[in-house]
Amino acid sequence: MNLLSNILYDMIYHSAPLILAVLGGLFAHKANVLNIGLEGMMLMGAFSSTLFVMLTGNLWIGVLLSVLCTLILGLIFSFFGITMKSNFIITGFGINIFVLALSSFMLKYLQMANINVSSIVNVTNLKINIPFIKDIPIVGSLLSGHTLITYISFILILVVSIVMYKTKFGVYVRVVGENEEAAKSVGINSTAIKYAAVLIGAALCALAGANLAVERMALFTNNMTAGRGFIAIAAIYCGGAKPVKSSIYAIIFGLAKSLAINLALFAGPVSGLFEIVPYLMIVIVLFAVSAVESRRTKIRGFKLE
Question: In this model, does residue 287 exceed pLDDT 60?
């Protein structure tokens, strides 16, 4: 029972930043912008949030400033990718490499191996324990004892679904993504919509990074996102760029990470092998989804381009 509770708690714990990155990446995907820079934007959120918390001594000011920094990064990506028509993949990888290099340089400049703000942020106090629910076995592990941004990430699944399918902005995003020329012909500013889509993604990636570094650990270590941005892209692809379905895949990847950590405790000398479980899960899920889609295409009798 204890092991199961730990696995469920860690599943939510590790799913939150993935869900935020997935929901952010969905807007760009729907607007036909391939944002490979999710990884770099998450890393910028993690790095800048801890840096500004250390400089200001205030958690929420640090998080707010990290969002602003990541929005600037989103503007840079948008300028080159949307305005200047550069290749999205190359631009995204450029963003990823730039942020990794920037954070490495700043750590060396500050002569620090990492940025530790545990003297400012008490991560235990950030956990929200819901009365009554926290005492229920298993359910308490799922629903109680998490941080504010973690709860926000799950609430945003519903919010993004409503925005994407029930609002004018969501319709504009999807129209621009499906047929940009048609969107322009009815007076929709496709460039502005694409910029907005990328910036929404940047803001949510900043929250994902802040959740990963400040809220959970009060610590930044270089390259601590460890490929989570690419996992988010995989979840978007597997979920067909639908908010609920893509978030479910993010939770599946979170479960894989949780299993890897908790089962490694019983593995002894080979515990390090469990680190590959989340990444192996990505390959398996992508293969399965691709196989199912290919089978559906063959059954219908034609190939979708």
Answer: yes
